[in-house]
Design goal:
Layout (H helix, E strand, L loop, with lengths): L8 H15 L9 H30 L3 E5 L3 E4 L2 H7 L3 H11 L3 H5 L5 E3 L3 H15 L4 E6 L7 E5 L2 E5 L12 E12 L2 E7 L2 E7 L2 E13 L6 E11 L5 H5 L3 H11 L17 H23 L8 H4 E6 L6 H12 L4 H8 L3 E4 L10 E3 H7 L1 H22 L3 H7 L2 E4 L2 E5 H8 L2 E4 L2 H11 L1 H6 L4 E3 L6 H7 L2 H11 L21 H26 L8 E6 L8 H17 L2 H6 L3 E6 L7 H18 L8 E6 L4 H10 L2 E4 L11 H7 L3 E4 L5 H8 L5 E2 L7 H6 L8 H11 L6 H11 L8 H20 L1 H13 L6 H13 L11
Parallel strand pairs: 1-4, 1-12, 4-11, 12-13, 13-17, 17-18, 19-20, 19-22, 20-21, 22-23, 23-24
Antiparallel strand pairs: 2-3, 5-6, 7-10, 8-9, 10-11, 14-16, 15-16
Bound molecules: ligand 26Y.
Enzyme class: transferase
EC number: 2.4.1.1
Cofactor: pyridoxal 5'-phosphate
Length: about 800
C-alpha cells in the first residue's frame, strides 16, 4: 500500500463518507451541512497529520536550530479553506462534495472561528505561523487552548453586549489531543533550602499542582511539503493533586477542587489596552510559559546530555512581555532541576530569548505587584531579584553609583502602593534582542520608551516591520483578483514572492486591465452588501464608495474622528440643493470592532456610531448618498469578506500612538486606498506605494507632544464645535449618554487631538470624493496600492527575524515521491 493518502476525487469522497460514518457515527447516506463540514475537515486533517508527521520526523533527523514562538494569543480564524489551498487539494474536495450534493462554499461557513486573540498582536502571531511553515522553518508556536476565545459581540439599540464564545462546543476537528504529553505546573507554596550532594539548593515546595496537556494544531505551508505545529496547552487537574483531601475523607470537596484547576485555561482576557493585575491572568501566563519551557527542554535532551548546545539549538521569541516569565522559569529549571550553576544558567538563558514590543503607550506596559508574584510564584520572585541584583551591580561597575539611573532601569519599581515588577525591564535584561514592529515605532522605543536601555545596549535594539500573509489575505479571500494578478504575472509565484507585485505597475493605466480590476471590486462589494444586510438589516448600494474602518475600538484609533466627518457630510447633504446633491459621491461608511468590556468610553463611541447611523440611514433627504453602518462581531472571517470589498480604509490614529497596524497592509494589497495619518506602518506604506496614491493628513509624531501641551489654548474649528453642540443638543438622541464622548474631545481635553486634525482630515476626505469621480485615476491608484504592497508580506518579516534574531535556516524535507 502507498504510504500516502490519495487525493483523487474518488478517494477523497470515500474518506469523507467514511468519516461521516465512523468518526461522526452518522448515516453515510443522510447527513446535514454541518456534518458534511466536519467529515470534510476530518478528512483534510488526515492529510495534515501525514504531512505533519513527516515534517516533524525530518526535523528530528536533521536536528536544526529551532525557533519557538510563544504567544498568549493566536487569532487563527477558520482552517478548512486555508488547508485545502495549502495542501493543493481544493478542486478534488469541491468536486467530491459536489457529487455528494454539497457545496464547499456553504460548508466553509459552518466552521467556527478560532478566536484565541484580541486583535493585531494575536493575528500577527497567526500570520507568522503561516509564513514560517511556507518558508520551511523549523518552528513551532506555543500558546493556550482557551475554552472561550474572544467574546462574541452583539449590538442592541447601539449597546454592545458580550457573549461567551462556545467555539469548542461542537468539537474541533483541527486539533489533536495528546493526553500523554503533559507537564506538572505548580502555584503558591514556598521555597525551602535543601542540601543535595553537599550543595545548598533552593526547592519550590508545597502549593498546588495542576497539569498542562498538549493539543497540537497542524499548520500547513503553501506549496511545500512542510507542516509545522501550534501546540496549545489546556489545564487539567493533576493526578497527584490534593491527595491529602481525599485521604481526610472529603471526597466531593476534593473533586470540586480538582475542577478548579481547569479554569486556568478557560478564558481569554478581552482587554488589549490596560494591564490589569489579575491573579488568574498571571497564572495563565506562568501556566503557558512553564509547560512550554519544560517541553522545549525535554525535546532538547532527547539528543543532548549537557546544556552547552542549548543556545545553538533553541531560539525563543516572546510575543510582547506576556510570556516573559519564561526567563526566570528557564533559569529555575536549569538551576533547581538540572543542577547548573547560576552563572552557567544565566549564560545560557541570556542567549535564548528575544522579545517584541507592540505598544507605544507607556501605561500599557505590564507590571505585576511583587506581593502577588511572591504569593503565586515564590521561587520566581527570588530569581527576579537575583537577575535585578546582577543587573544593577554590572551597571554600577560601568556607570558608578548613579542612583537615578538605577531607579529608572531597575526591574523593580517602588511606588507608594508597593513594589511592582516591570516586565518590560525583565525582558530587556533577559533577552539578547528587543524589536519594535514598524520603523517609527522602533525609533520611539529607543528615544521615548527605553532610552536608558538603548544607551546601555544599543546593539539589542532592532526593527522588524510587521507583515501579513498574502495567502489568507489576498490569494484565498479574493480569488478573482488572485487569478487576474496571476494572469498578468505569468503564474502564481507571487504568492510566495510578493515583491513580484511590482510588475503590476505596468498595467496601472491600461484601460482593459482597469475594467477587469473594477469588475472584481464590484463583485466583492456585492458580497459585502449581503453581509451588511444580514448583520444589520440596512440595505446599501454596491455603487457607492465603500469606506471602511474595522479594528478594536480605542480612543487613540479615533473612530470618533471618522464619525465627526460623517456628521459633517450629513450636514452638507442636508444643506445642499438637489443639483448639488447630484454632484456628490455616494458613500457607505462601515465601522466595526469590539470594545473591551470595561472600556466605558469605547462603548459610548459604538453607541454614537449607531445613533448617527440611525438618523442618517432613515433620512429620506439622504437616500443612497450616505449610509453609516456598524457591523457587529468583527472577526477574522468577516474581515475576509470586508477587506476585498473595501475601496477606502481608515487608519487615522493620532501620530505616535499606533505601533504598526497590520490591517492597513491587508487593505492595500487588495487595491484599497488608505486615508491615514503618518503613524505606524502607514509611514512605510507611503514610502512603498507613494504618498500621492494615499490620502495622508494630520499632525506628525514630532508635533504631537507640542500640540498636546498647547491644546488648552487651541481653538477648535467652528465646524468641530458645531458638531459637538449638535450631539450635545440631541440631534442624534441619547444626548446624556453621549455627553461624556463630547467632553473627552472638547474644552481643553482632547488628548488624541481630534480638533487639531479635523480640518485636514475633511480636506483629505474631500480629495477622496474628487478622486473617486475620476474612476480611471482612482483605479490607477488602486492598482498601484497592490503593486506597492510587496514589502508587507509576513514572509519578508519572518525572513528578517530568522536571519537577524533567531539564526535559523529553512529545513525542507524532500517532496514525497
Ligand atoms: C497586557 C494585556 C492587557 C494586553 C493584551 C493584549 C496588552 C496588549 C495586547 C495586545 C496588543 C496589540 O494587539 N497590539 C497591536 O499589535 C499589532 C501587531 O504588532 C500592531 O500592529 C498594533 O499597532 C498594536 O496595537
Amino acid at each position: 500500500m502507498d504510504r500516502y493518502l490519495r487525493n483523487d476525487v474518488m478517494s477523497v469522497q470515500e474518506s469523507i463518507v467514511n468519516h461521516v460514518e465512523y468518526t461522526m457515527a452518522r448515516n453515510r447516506y443522510q447527513f446535514d451541512d454541518f456534518e458534511a463540514y466536519n467529515a470534510a475537515a476530518f478528512s483534510v486533517r488526515d492529510r495534515l497529520i501525514e504531512s505533519w508527521n513527516d515534517t516533524q520526523q525530518y526535523f528530528r533527523e536533521k536536528s536544526p536550530k529551532r525557533v519557538y514562538y510563544m504567544s498568549m494569543e493566536f487569532l487563527m480564524g477558520r482552517s478548512l479553506l486555508n488547508s485545502l489551498y495549502n495542501l493543493d487539494i481544493k478542486p478534488q474536495y469541491t468536486e467530491a462534495l459536489r457529487q455528494l450534493g454539497y457545496e464547499l462554499e456553504t460548508l466553509v461557513d459552518k466552521e467556527r472561528d478560532a478566536a484565541l486573540g484580541n486583535g493585531g498582536l494575536g493575528r500577527l502571531a497567526s500570520c507568522f505561523l503561516d509564513s514560517m511553515a511556507t518558508q520551511d522553518l523549523p518552528a513551532w508556536g506555543y500558546g493556550i487552548r482557551y475554552q472561550y476565545g474572544m467574546f462574541r459581540q452583539t449590538v442592541n439599540d447601539g449597546f454592545q453586549h458580550e457573549h461567551p464564545d462556545y467555539w469548542l462546543n461542537f468539537g474541533n476537528p483541527w486539533e489533536i489531543e495528546r493526553p500523554y504529553i503533559s507537564y506538572p505546573i505548580k502555584f503558591y507554596g514556598g521555597v525551602e533550602k535543601q542540601i543535595i550532594d553537599g550543595h545548598e539548593v533552593n526547592k519550590w515546595v508545597g502549593g498546588e499542582d495542576i497539569s498542562a496537556v498538549a493539543y497540537d494544531n497542524p499548520i500547513p505551508g503553501w506549496n511545500t511539503p512542510t507542516t509545522i505545529n501550534l501546540r496549545l496547552w489546556s489545564a487539567k487537574p493533576s493526578r497527584e493533586f490534593d491527595l491529602e483531601s481525599f485521604n481526610t475523607g472529603d471526597y466531593v470537596q476534593a473533586i470540586l477542587a480538582k475542577q478548579r484547576a481547569e479554569t486556568i485555561s478557560s478564558v481569554l482576557y478581552p482587554d488589549d489596552r490596560t494591564y490589569q493585575g489579575k491573579e488568574l491572568r498571571l497564572k495563565q501566563q506562568y501556566f503557558m510559559v512553564s509547560a512550554t519551557i519544560q517541553d522545549i527542554i525535554r525535546r532538547y535532551l532527547v539528543n543532548h546530555d549537557s546544556f552547552d548546545e542549548f543556545p545553538n539549538q533553541v531560539a525563543v521569541q516572546l510575543n510582547d512581555t506576556h510570556p516573559s516569565l519564561a526567563i526566570p522559569e528557564l533559569l529555575r529549571l536549569l538551576i533547581d532541576e538540572h543542577g547548573l550553576s547560576d552563572t552557567k544558567a544565566w549564560e545560557i538563558t541570556s542567549k535564548v530569548f528575544s522579545f517584541t514590543n507592540h505598544t507605544v503607550l507607556v501605561d500599557a506596559l505590564e507590571k505585576w505587584p511583587v506581593d502577588l508574584l511572591e504569593k503565586v510564584l515564590p521561587r520566581h520572585m527570588q530569581i527576579i531579584y537575583e537577575i535585578n541584583w546582577k543587573f544593577i551591580s554590572d551597571l554600577s561597575q560601568k556607570r558608578g553609583e548613579d542612583f537615578a539611573l538605577f531607579g529608572r532601569t531597575s526591574i523593580i519599581e517602588e511606588t507608594t502602593e508597593g513594589k511592582l515588577v516591570r516586565m518590560a525591564h525583565l525582558a530587556m535584561v533577559g533577552c539578547h534582542t528587543v524589536n519594535g514592529v514598524a520603523e517609527v515605532h522602533s525609533e520611539l522605543l529607543k528615544t521615548r520608551m527605553f532610552p536608558d536601555f538603548y544607551e546601555l545596549a544599543p546593539e539589542k535594539f532592532q526593527n522588524k516591520t510587521n507583515g501579513v500573509t498574502q495567502r489568507r489575505w489576498l490569494a484565498f479571500s479574493n480569488p478573482a483578483l488572485r487569478d487576474l494578478i496571476s494572469s498578468k504575472l505569468g503564474g502564481d509565484s507571487w504568492i510566495r514572492e510578493l515583491d513580484m507585485l511590482h510588475d503590476l505597475d505596468k498595467y496601472a493605466e491600461d484601460p482593459e486591465f482597469q475594467a477587469q480590476w473594477r469588475a472584481i471590486k464590484l463583485e466583492n462589494k456585492k458580497k459585502l452588501t449581503k453581509l451588511i444586510e444580514e448583520k444589520t438589516g440596512t440595505v446599501v448600494s454596491p455603487n457607492a464608495l465603500f469606506d471602511i474602518q474595522v479594528k478594536r475600538i480605542h480612543e487613540y484609533k479615533r473612530q470618533l474622528l471618522n464619525v465627526f466627518s460623517v456628521i459633517h457630510r450629513y450636514n452638507k447633504i442636508k444643506a445642499a440643493t438637489p443639483e448639488e446633491r447630484k454632484e456628490m459621491v455616494p458613500r457607505v461608511v462601515v465601522i466595526g470592532g469590539k470594545a473591551a468590556p470595561g472600556y466605558d468610553m469605547a462603548k459610548r463611541i459604538i453607541k454614537l456610531v449607531c445613533a448617527v447611523g440611525e438618523k442618517v440611514n432613515n433620512d429620506p433627504d439622504v437616500g443612497d448618498l450616505l449610509k453609516l453602518v456598524f457591523i457587529p462581531d468583527y472577526n477574522v472571517s468577516s474581515a475576509e469578506v470586508i477587506v476585498p470589498a473595501a475601496e477606502l480604509s481608515q487608519h487615522i490614529s493620532t501620530a505616535g500612538t499606533e505601533a504598526s497596524g497590520t490591517s492597513n497592509m491587508k487593505f492595500a494589497m487588495n487595491g484599497c486606498l488608505i486615508i491615514g495619518t503618518m503613524d505606524g506602518s502607514n509611514v512605510e506604506i507611503a514610502e512603498e506605494i507613494g504618498k500621492r496614491n494615499m490620502f495622508i493628513f494630520g499632525a506628525n509624531s514630532a508635533d504631537v507632544p507640542i500640540l498636546r501641551s498647547e491644546r488648552a489654548r487651541f481653538k477648535p474649528p467652528p465646524e468641530f464645535d458645531g458638531i459637538v453642540e449638535q450631539i450635545r443638543g440631541g440631534a442624534f438622541d441619547w444626548a446624556d449618554f453621549l455627553n461624556p464622548v463630547c467632553d473627552a474631545v472638547h474644552g481643553g481635553a482632547d488628548y488624541y487631538l481630534l480638533a487639531n486634525d479635523f480640518e485636514d482630515y475633511i480636506r483629505a476626505q474631500d480629495l477622496v470624493d474628487e478622486t473617486y469621480k475620476d474612476q480611471a485615476k482612482w483605479t490607477t491608484m488602486s492598482i498601484k496600492s497592490t503593486a506597492g504592497s510587496g514589502k508587507f508580506s509576513s514572509d519578508r518579516t519572518i525572513r528578517e527575524y530568522a536571519k537577524d534574531i533567531w539564526g535559523i535556516e529553512p529545513c525542507r524535507r524532500p517532496e514525497p515521491g
